Amino acid sequence: MNETAYIGLGSNIGDRERHLAEAVRRIGAVGGVRVRRTSSLYDTEPVGGPPQPPFLNAAVEVETAMRPERLLAALRSIEEAMGRVRGERDGPRVIDLDILLFGDRVAGSESLTVPHPRLLERRFALEPLAEIAPGAVHPVAKRTAAELLEMLGAGRAGAVVRRRARAARHGDTDGEWGAGPASCGPKEGNAR
Question: What is the pTM of this model?
Answer without folding.
Answer: 0.82
